[in-house]
Amino acid sequence: MSRADTLAERRAYLEDHLAGIDCGRCGARVGVRKLSPQQTSVQWSAQAERRCATIAEATAAGRPAALVPTCPGLRDSIDRAVREGRLEVT
Questions:
Q1: Which of 32, 40, 62, 83 has the most Cβ atoms closer than 10 angstroms to its Cβ?
Q2: What digits encode the pLDDT tens for the residues 29-63?
């Protein structure tokens, strides 16, 4: 497999089949994929990380954004999107 193939595969894994979900609390827009009722993948952009108060508080305290489990407002928004059919569990 070439480097270009590896990068394309990585990009597809990270970006394909993501639904854009806006947090009802702060408006941060993230990419979300639900592979089961228990499993949720969230892709944060730098802009979304800056907008989210939960992430901003953690990073200001020295915690890497990647180690913040999620924000309650975003979790509620994802659950609502599933109930409303805007986010499919695949």
A1: 32
A2: 999 999 999 999 999 898 998 899 999 899 899 99
